[in-house]
Amino acid sequence: MPSVFLSLLRLLAVLLPISWTLDRRLRGHRPAMAPAVEGSVPLPWRNRRRWLISLGGVLVLALAAAAFAQWSAGREAERIARALTGGEPSRAPALITRYGCGGCHVIPGAPGADGRVAAPLAGLRERVYLGGVLRNTPENLVAWMIDPRAFSPRTAMPATGITEAEARDVAAWLYAH
Prior knowledge:
54% of the residues lie in helices and 2% in strands. The protein is mostly helical. A two-stranded antiparallel sheet has the order 1-2. The longest helix has 41 residues, at 45-85.
């Protein structure tokens, strides 16, 4: 959904200069080189003002709709992540901090998770493999977080001591974000 929000912001960036130009033309301002059109009368200020207020209202409604769509998609992603993992994503940020995941990984939305040692965990739900060795399934992700060396003895990821229930919460967070 961020792409919808960004698209609307781009649309806003295009429409504002256009509305500014139209406002100048409606006021009767013409570039020095352009001849005045005979018989043209600028609209009264009241009509220009209504038009600009209407345009602003439409833009505000479009941005509100985009924000709602993004919020709604986030809630849907969390619902799906809960169903896949059996975890609660709202508990994950504290767990990510407690177990030091952010010291190695960049984890969007997790405070302080800006490590550059290991792979960033954004978009984990769309990846095919975990750690380069396991198919990306919720069960494998939980097992990987609990004991990564059971699957890849030479991995740099340490066994953190995270419990299965906590790993499910973190997995739900990663799949939802």
